[in-house]
Amino acid sequence: MLTEEQLLAAPEDDYMNDAQLEFFRNLLLTQAEEVKESLANARAQLASFENEPDELDKASIEEERRMALRFLDRQTKLLPKIMESIKRIDEDDYGFCSVTGEPIGVKRLLLRPTATLCAEEKQRQELKERNYRDA
């Protein structure tokens, strides 16, 4: 299996070859397991919160609960993205922008393996959203 260094050193014309796809599949499968484990831990943490009679303790516990719920929400949204990325690998569609069809790039995929947009398209969409909000 490729290392991250070998992946980054690969020529651009060999983009998303079988070895690279295997690297990202393994990375995504590992992330999926980590997310499932963290979801189980977050759910257990939420279940363990008790009602405290002391107002200060209540506020502290409520803040911890809110943070746990935000974490749970983010992780719950991440898992389907990971599974969709694995599906894109199976369909030989992984690593290419869903809008332009251009390569997303190995560096970007290492930072965000679930990316579906190339950096340029992501910037265009963010700019469009910013302009829409400001209007």
What does this structure look like?
The structure is a single chain. The protein is an all-alpha fold. It has one domain (4-134): DksA, coiled-coil domain (Four Helix Bundle (Hemerythrin (Met), subunit A)), CATH 1.20.120.910. The protein is built from five helices and no strands. It has helices at 4-9, 18-48, 55-90, 106-111, 119-134. The longest helix has 36 residues, at 55-90. The mean pLDDT is 90. Residues 20-89 form the DnaK suppressor protein DksA N-terminal domain.
Architecture per CATH nomenclature, i.e. the level-2 architecture: Up-down Bundle
Q: Spell out the helices and strands N to C.
A: HHHHH
β-sheet strand percentage: under 5%
CATH class: Mainly Alpha
Q: What is the tally of beta strands?
A: 0
Helix content: over 70%
Global shape = extended
In the CATH hierarchy, what is the superfamily? DksA, coiled-coil domain
| Individual helix count | 5
